[in-house]
Every structure is written in C-alpha cells, then in structure tokens.
Amino acid sequence: MTDRQADLRTLAGELTDYEPITDAFLAKSFTDQLLIVDVRDGASLPAAVIDKLADHDLLPAESVYSDDETPHSAVGNVGDATRHHFVDVRTRGSHRSYVVE
Fold it and tell me: How much is the pLDDT for 38?
C-alpha cells in the first residue's frame, strides 16, 4: 500500500465521524482511485466534508469526468444511502485495474 492510499484510508475513516455519513471507502475505476462516500438517505453531504476532500485533492467525479460546470458527486442510491464519488486528482490516470494483452 502506498503512502497516498494509507492517507486516503485514514481520511475515509475520519469521514464516518460526520453524522450523515454511513460509509466511506477507497475504490478504483479503470485508471483512477476513487473515494466513495455514502450519505444517509434524505441528508446532504456536509460542506465541511466537501472542503476536506478538496484539501486532499479529491474532487467530485462529475467535475472531473464531465464538461458540466456543476460539481456533482452523487451517482445514485445504495440501500438507504446516496452514494457520492470523488476522484483522486493527485494520482489520476496512474491506476490500472485491468491488464489488456
């Protein structure tokens, strides 16, 4: 595990201390590392969390992957929570989930 991954895992653990956050964990897309945040259904993601993530170079997925000016992070519902994706822009493009020969 890299220092960056260890730092982000620690950050994910800290995020669950915020009242509406039910889970936070690291995941990978094809080339990017993501921090996934689940927020209790009906609650919004606290601005302090969004700021904290930005301070760690984690940006809402829609602002990274789309030309849309609005920085959306919500991607849908999972159980009783709304799931949000944040892209690690510090290491963007350096992850390989699959090897194609």
Answer: 97
